[in-house]
Amino acid sequence: MYTTFFGLNEKPFTITPDPRYLFMSERHGEGLAHLIYGVTESGGFIQLTGEVGTGKTMLVRTLLGQIPSGVDIALILNPQLTAVEFLTAICDELGIQSLKDQSSAKSLVDALNRHLLEVHARGRRTILLVDEAQNLSEDVLEQLRLLTNLETARQKLLQIILIAQPELREKLAQDSLRQLAQRVTGRYHLEPLSSDEAFSYIDHRLRVAGALMEIFEPAAKREVYRLSGGIPRIINVICDRALLGAYSQESRTVDKVTVRKAASEVSGQKVKPSPLRWLLPVLGIGILILAGISLWPNLLGNPPETGSPSIVATVDTSSEQTPLAEASPDQVAESSIPDREPPMPKVDLESLFSSYTDSTGYGALLARWGVDYEPAAGPACSQAAAAGLRCFFQRGTWNNVRQLNRPVVVTLTSESGESRAFALTSLDDEMATLTLADGSVAMPVDQLTKYWFGQFLLVWRPPNNSYEAIGPGMRNENVRWLRKSLAEIDPSYLAYSSDADFFDDELQQRLSAFQRQHRLKTDGIAGQITQIIINSILAGDDTPRLTSKN
Q: What one-character-per-residue DSSP string does 138-171 give?
């Protein structure tokens, strides 16, 4: 629902354990190292514990994707079984057939022992991995201990890894299970994320999902951490709901208020702001009172004489002034020359806010692509997606907009705080053109800058009508498109390859050179910005361009 609106390829905060989204915090790295140790060593138990939602199952899925050759895994996901049922499940996982008596623990253990000896003779190892091990009964735990007695003269035949909630530690502390506890050769407890790790975790999952902008405001991330306690699963639930909330409000960013509403909805209880929210104003008032007391003697003195310097600094906010971020040294020097040339005419943009709606801006943008925008039919980006187009939302400068060279919707904010989405269809160094419902209006870029804080949205058509970041190791038609496009831009680059649809090292080097040439992030991955630049360079006359004068 909200993925297209935010420019995402998929939902970033699902609670399904997907190894692609593994965030390797310091704690998760150590936890995975313990699991790998359990796979590579033999004998005894390896124990990994953690609170609900800390990422234990994610580590297990990651481990399963890294199992070396020569290792067999028996994975038990539902350990709430009797001892006989548990042994049967192990045999089923290992493919042990032709059991004479499946109701006898001895028969099952004998069959398992024969199998382990056979695979050991072939140079293979066997790992038993039990998830949710806190649910194991004492009888099953005792049976697990006995399985560690299956061995040759030199090594154990079965390595056991237990993944569990903290209750397992309490259970193994019982005197009746002390023999099992003594055989645990490795223990690690997975703690929740720290605040910095939680912020990086949110950014990481958004990047994996294809985000190319900051969606969660810093204050929103802090609120997510406060409400989740750093537990990844709770972070996922809150963030997913917050994205849905921002989408319903047609907001391109998630603020802390939206996060609190999301947390209230998922918990079923009203979430209160942090006490610091009220503490800081109180401290501020106290500081002002103290400052007033210190200044009181001066206030009782004589007023300053006429002509004395004022304590109030005056800032020139004239619309003709060139912003320092975009002004060259020559421009700054020339600006001091009075009456160099007549000022450009001003446009009363404030008057447009009352009569202009966002649908007008989105409609003007989509019309350039031949799409009839219907406000009642849903978000503009959803309608664009139905036509094979993709929205790209970004925060940047006028130079960024010029470089992409596409008509865009810019978010302008009036002096009263009202925001509107205006269609920007032409832009050069001095003038910009906004398309309105009944025509267009040209105005100086410097004047427009007063109302613009860097937010813009463009529409583009991805190759093969499906966007994905194109990176090393991939093999598909998008790789073929990238190779062919780079060859068209630079004839010295030969696009032909026996593996034209494979992203090899040579293609990555060529792409990195292209990115450096165009002052893009040089990461050797063709993300949205890189693809848009390539698309703009090679696009035909039927592709809308920002510089077109219509």
A: HHHHHHHHHHTT-B-SSSBSEEEEEEE-THHHHH
- Domain 470-526: give its CATH code: 1.10.101.10
DSSP 302-316: PPPPTTSPPSS----
Report d(CA 468, CA 22) in Å as an integer: 19
Amino acid at the residue 329: P
The set of residues, in sequence order, having a beta carbon less than 8 Å from that of 440 and lying 6+ positions away, is 425, 433, 434
Structure pTM?
0.50
**Going by CATH, does the domain composed of 26-190 fall within 3.40.50.1460?**
no
CATH number, domain 195-267: 1.10.8.60
What pLDDT digit, counting tens, does each position of 340-397 carry?
Answer: 444 444 566 777 777 677 788 888 899 989 999 888 887 788 888 888 888 887 777 8
3-state secondary structure of 88: helix
Measured at the alpha carbon of residue 34, what is the angle toward residues 31 and 40, in degrees to the nearest 5? 145
For the CA atoms of 288, 279, 251, 467, what is the dihedral angle to 10 degrees? 110
Question: Bridge-partner residues for 442, per DSSP?
Answer: 433
